[in-house]
């Protein structure tokens, strides 16, 4: 377990302290198949030092972990990512990134407890790694938005084709993003918050 960008931990930094104006906190889970950019997204958008649990991938994972298409990846999340972002002076989001490797999916149960919504990150080069993820969210009844992470060599599909490939209902928002960029990751979270709000407001 590791606090990125830190050598010694000497106590909370000013930016780690929860603003006194905060009155509501929402738990959001960032989910997706192996290597779609979950840890990257939590790290780019978090205003506190993200907690990561990345471990080096070794030969022992060959044949167990599915790294097809992301062979250059050298580390993988083995438990969770954690970060925090203030959406407004009052509203704080707590972000939990899930592990992508299927052998760690049993951890999802704890990570989803109390979650109000989820972001499903997808990589259009490897759409198939997202099918099970979306199915599991639907089983749990957790509302989610889909964020298409833009890798440079990823094929561009029309939104309707993507929706149909993922069998996504029309009302589920879909947005392009670059998980490395704070503003882009923040837009994704704002889309989720707007969607959750629309679900909470009773129709006319
Ligand atoms: N070009 C590009 N690269 C990205 C983007 N997001 C992530 N990456 C890279 O893709 C790789 C995988 O990202 P991670 O954030 O580790 O993916 P993950 O979903 O947490 O992976 P697991 O925890 O192993 O499932 C890293 O090398 C990132 O630098 C993106 O939006 N664009
Ligand atoms: Mg990760």
Automatic annotation (TrEMBL):
Matches recorded under PANTHER family: ATP/GTP-BINDING PROTEIN-RELATED (PTHR42708), GLIDING MOTILITY PROTEIN MGLA (PTHR42708:SF1)
Similarity remark: Belongs to the GPN-loop GTPase family.
Name assigned to this protein: ATP/GTP-binding protein
Pfam families according to UniProt: ATP_bind_1 (PF03029)
Keywords: GTP-binding, Hydrolase, Nucleotide-binding
Keyword Nucleotide-binding: yes
Matching InterPro entries: Gliding_Motility_GTPase, Gpn, P-loop_NTPase
UniProt keyword GTP-binding present: yes
Domain of life: Bacteria
CDD domains in UniProt: Ras_like_GTPase
Taxonomic source organism: Streptomyces sp. 900116325
């Amino acid at each position: 377990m590791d606090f990125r960008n830190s050598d010694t931990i000497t106590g909370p930094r000013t930016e780690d302290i929860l603003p006194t104006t905060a009155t509501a906190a929402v738990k959001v889970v960032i989910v997706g198949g192996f290597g779609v950019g979950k840890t990257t997204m939590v790290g780019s958008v978090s205003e506190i030092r993200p907690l990561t649990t990345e471990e080096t991938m070794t030969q022992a994972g060959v044949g167990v972990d599915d790294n097809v298409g992301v062979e250059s990846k050298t580390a993988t999340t083995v438990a969770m990512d954690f970060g925090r972002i203030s959406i407004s002076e009052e509203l704080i989001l707590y972000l939990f990134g899930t592990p992508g490797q299927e052998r760690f999916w049993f951890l999802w149960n704890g990570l989803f407890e109390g979650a109000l919504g989820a972001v499903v990150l997808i990589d259009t080069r490897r759409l198939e790694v997202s099918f099970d993820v979306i199915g599991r969210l639907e089983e749990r009844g957790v509302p989610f938005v889909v964020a298409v992470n833009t890798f440079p060599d990823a094929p561009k599909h029309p939104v309707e084709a993507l929706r149909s490939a993922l069998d996504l209902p029309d009302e589920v928002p879909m947005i392009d993003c670059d998980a490395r960029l704070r503003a882009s990751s923040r837009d994704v979270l704002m889309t989720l918050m707007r969607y959750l709000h629309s679900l909470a407001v009773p129709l006319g």
